[in-house]
Design a protein that fits this description.
Blueprint: E1 5-6, E2 9-10, E3 13-19, E4 21-22, E5 34-35, H1 42-56, E6 65-72, H2 80-93, E7 96-106, H3 110-113, H4 116-121, E8 126-132, H5 136-141, H6 148-160, E9 166-172, H7 179-191, E10 196-201, H8 209-212, H9 220-236, E11 240-243, E12 246-248, H10 255-261, E13 265-269, E14 274-278, E15 285-290, H11 294-300, E16 307-312, H12 315-326, E17 333-334, H13 335-342, H14 352-358, E18 362-364, E19 368-371, H15 373-377, H16 379-384
Helix pairs in contact: 1-2, 7-9
């Protein structure tokens, strides 16, 4: 695997860093997160992350990184000194683009809030705060360990620390949640003046407590109303929906996530981290992932054994994965991006393209491609049109 240059120039490159520990595992969470049982092994894990990055450097082709996202788990549990050492080590090994976006995920707990000034001083320029709700009862039902007051204080602390670019995560469709309560969460979030709001529907994912012991959730009709009315309320106050679950004011769209949705490349370092890289030499696109277990990762971070798996995407894989990402974008994408990033001719989109347009799920012309509002609402139905048929000979 070499660099990520395609026919239209270099594919943008981002860096994802995974911190696998949290204070307590939430019953809906299917991420690679593990409840911390004592002090975090900060120095050992930072060393492992940088060793992991060293092993991945030959795959970058000398490209600069346009964004860094430190996710988890709960990265805010790390000390500011550990984050400083991590970011310094990254910058010693990789070139960052001017004005690169550097995001750190945090939760509203008091211990994390106290570090916000330090995080800002060491180069973090965007926070993503896991609020989920401002209703104490709903927070209790979904296993969160903060309350309404802590959530408000976290947003206020972010502003006081100088973060003019921070995101608030919200969820809707919570156990026992009504439409007015869902809209109240949005109103309270907007009152805190974040640059960005991510709003997700609670879903029951396999390998979670909620999947094994499902709570009573709002029905499909209630969920559809919560989504639509919430979207309208956000728009009324200037939050533009640019992706199915993402709303931003002005130009504060999340650059890191946009790179995912536009089928850009990204390195993934840390336990369970995933990456995607384009190879100029053989025009292949590779996905790879690191060992999930934190102890296994710590033991193998500087060695080839840190790789949990790797595969090259077939043509049908590339087509489907490109559409899975790009069709989440409200504006859609230029057709030239499909050829440049997926490395496939436009002709391979037919006949699915025509069928999707006929069903009112897709809009496109000679230059642009995007899902309709109906297409985004029924995205799975739209994507099924781009799944290749399997024959008995396959």
């Amino acid at each position: 695997m070499t660099d990520g240059y395609g026919s239209a120039g270099p594919v943008p490159l981002a860096l994802y860093i995974h911190i696998p520990w949290c204070a307590r595992k939430c019953p809906y969470c299917d991420f690679n997160s593990h409840q911390a049982r004592g002090p975090l092994p900060e120095r050992a894990y930072t060393d492992a992350l940088l060793a992991d990055l060293e092993q991945d450097l030959p795959r970058t082709g000398g490209r600069s990184v346009m964004s860094i996202f430190i996710g988890g788990g709960t990265p805010g549990l790390l000390s500011a000194a550990a984050v400083d050492r991590l970011l310094s080590g990254v910058q010693d090994r990789l070139s960052l683009e001017p004005e690169a976006e550097v995001t750190l995920e945090v939760n509203p707990g008091a211990v994390e809030r106290q570090k916000f000034h330090e995080f800002r001083a060491i180069g973090v320029n965007r926070l993503s705060i896991g609020v989920q709700s401002f209703n104490d009862e709903h927070l209790r039902r979904i296993g969160r360990i903060h309350g309404r007051r802590e959530a408000i204080r976290a947003a206020e602390a972010a502003q006081a620390a100088g973060f003019d670019n921070f995101n608030l995560d919200l969820m809707f469709g919570l156990p026992g949640q009504s439409l007015p309560q869902a809209l109240t969460d949005i109103a309270m979030a907007m009152a805190l003046n974040p640059a960005h709001i991510s709003r997700y529907q609670l879903t029951l994912e396999p390998n979670t407590v909620f999947y094994r012991q499902p709570p009573l959730l709002p029905d499909d009709e209630q969920l559809a109303t919560m989504e639509e009315d919430g979207r309208m309320l956000l728009a009324e106050y200037g939050y533009q929906r640019y992706e199915i679950s993402a709303y931003a004011r002005g130009r504060r769209r999340c650059r890191h996530n946009l790179n995912y949705w536009q089928f850009g490349d990204y390195l993934g370092i840390g336990a369970g981290a995933h990456g995607k890289l384009t190879d100029r030499g053989d025009q292949a696109i590779y996905r790879y992932w690191k060992l999930n277990d934190p102890d296994d990762f710590l033991n193998h971070a500087g060695a080839p054994q840190r790789i949990g798996g790797e595969r090259a995407l077939s043509g049908p894989d590339r087509l489907l994965e490109f559409m899975m990402n790009a069709l989440r974008l409200t504006e859609g994408v230029p057709l030239t991006l499909f050829e440049a990033r997926a490395g496939l001719p436009l002709a391979c989109l037919e006949p699915a393209l025509s069928q999707a347009v006929e069903r009112g799920l897709l809009r496109h012309d000679d230059a642009w491609l995007g899902a309709t509002e109906r297409g985004q609402r029924f995205l799975n139905d739209l994507l099924e049109l781009f799944v290749p048929e399997v024959t008995a000979d396959d």
